[in-house]
Design a protein that fits this description.
The chain is α/β, with parallel strands linked by helices. The protein has helices at 11-22, 51-54, 78-100, 135-152, 173-183, 203-215, 234-245, 256-265, 269-276, 284-290, 298-305; strands spanning 2-6, 26-30, 60-63, 104-110, 157-163, 166-167, 201-202, 222-225.
Length: 309
């Protein structure tokens, strides 16, 4: 297959392009800083081909490019900034795909479209009503809805994959910070956080699902959630990271209410929620429709993630 990948120089995109090439696919990489996706020609490091040439004979598009969730937002109008990066370019790309006869577009969305946390014993499901609580999540949801309009008109096959935190070699953000804390032996006040449950997905498992969705007939016009299939408490995750790094965990006890109070005092309640709250996803639809299940375990995924530290 000939596959165009936007965001090809990112954490997920670079690994995906290498994997697709290894499988024998022809990859057209589009990098974030070298093109204007929403206006005019698509430009790459080797020139400025028009979109009709870039998309010529492409079988599928994997759309990763966009503005990620920002912890310290400085834009005066965050929603418009996210729409400009996540919604408008997605609509433009879908139109260009239809004009060029591309059959399928896979959109990597976010579990934040479902919401920020789940209640004990419950999981997010693809068919749940969305609860996008911030500008980033809303822009992703609006992009999903725009793509589904194309699908409803039979103009394009659309596959939406909502992902929780993705970890792997060269990961950034919260996961990279946690690796550094653990590797440096920084004592963490998280010994008591054993009852929450969070879903994660290794880069390997996410890419594996994307590859399945490129051509599987039953993936067309569907929304999927993805995870490693093993939900962990914060304590459990740190313990597994320590095993992968061959270091001893350095955790001490602090009551969750104390942690919450401290987070509120420094305006970091979102960080408290990520560390102490639950966020679980149900991936049973993937098994039923696609006969897909995670190909590697959390333990193996973490071993791969720390190999390049």
């Amino acid at each position: 297959m000939k596959v165009l990948v936007t965001g090809a120089n990112g954490f997920i995109g670079s690994a995906l392009c290498l994997h697709l090439s290894g499988l024998g696919h022809e990859v057209v990489p589009i990098v974030g800083k070298g093109y204007e996706l929403s206006e005019g020609p698509a430009t790459r490091s080797n020139g400025m081909p028009q979109w009709k040439f870039v998309l010529n004979k492409c079988d599928a598009i994997i759309h990763l490019a966009g503005r990620a969730h920002v912890m310290r937002e400085r834009e005066p109008d965050p929603l418009e900034s996210f729409r400009a990066a996540n919604l408008n370019p997605t609509i433009h790309l879908a139109r260009r795909a239809v004009e060029s006869g591309v059959k399928r577009l896979i959109f990597i969305s976010s579990i934040k479209v479902n919401g920020e946390e789940t209640l004990p014993g419950s999981c997010f499901k693809p068919e749940d009503a969305p609860h996008a609580n911030d500008a980033y999540a809303l822009s992703k949801f609006e992009a999903e809805q725009a793509l589904l309009v194309f699908a409803q008109k039979n103009l394009l096959e659309v596959v939406i994959i909502r992902s929780p935190l993705v970890y792997g070699p060269n990961a950034k953000g919260n996961f990279a910070s946690m690796l550094k804390w653990v590797e440096r032996g920084i004592p963490l006040p998280l010994l008591a956080i054993k009852n929450n449950r969070r879903s994660f997905v290794s880069l390997h498992n996410l890419i594996d699902l994307v590859v399945i969705c490129m051509a599987h007939p039953r993936a067309a016009n569907q929304i999927f959630l993805v995870s490693d299939g093993e939900d962990l408490s914060t304590y459990g995750l740190i313990t597994k990271i320590c095993i992968a790094l061959s270091v001893k965990p350095r955790l001490f006890y602090a009551h969750p209410l104390l942690l919450k109070s401290g987070a509120m005092m420094i305006n970091k309640l979102d960080l408290y929620q990520r560390l102490c709250g639950s966020l679980q996803v149900d991936i049973s639809k993937n098994q039923k429709l696609l006969d897909w299940k995670p190909s590697i375990s959390v333990d193996e995924g973490l071993r791969k993630a720390v190999q390049r530290l």
